[in-house]
Amino acid sequence: LRRRRAEVLLASGKPERALAEAETAVALDPARVEHHLALARARWAATADLEGARKALQAARTLRDSDAAALLEADLLAAEGGDEKAEAALALYGRVLASGNEPHRREAALSRGRLRASLGRHDQARADFRKALELGAGAGAMEGLQAAAMAEDLAHIARRAAAPRATGDQMKAQLLEIIRQARAGDEEARRK
Length: 192
Fold this sequence. Notes:
Elements: H1 2-11, H2 15-28, H3 33-47, H4 50-62, H5 66-80, H6 83-98, H7 102-118, H8 122-134, H9 139-162, H10 168-191
Helix pairs in contact: 1-2, 1-3, 2-3, 3-4, 3-5, 4-5, 5-6, 5-7, 6-7, 7-8, 7-9, 8-9
């Protein structure tokens, strides 16, 4: 019950209260993997205490839920930033996706999609969001798909805006060439 409360509080944007509930959950039942994972998430959200989150994660690992632990470790790596950490996080998400644990696979697909989108890998992100939808992720995956599509559109617009503009003389020359080609086509059509 305390762990669930911690998760709800965390999702509601109340990380400090979530941390207190998660700490109580671990103190009351230290043998539950879920409690340690909730503590790691809450510790990171409430205090950005990476070391404390990793300790809770290690405790969860020793209790043998490797998919959940890998998923949380990937989330922490992604949050740390940097190319090397991002690639390590992507590899961990991939490992969880290859497992048979459906709830963890769904979350891994969604998280990997978000990370790939943040790295500008929009095609791969869309594939991950589609996978998350297949696995039942629902609204989060749909939002991710829409965000990836918008990001790709914005990137296209930015590339077009950065493209060199033709000068007046270049545009005039291009227009004259188009007219010349059209006249040549008309001439050829008349001959036939």
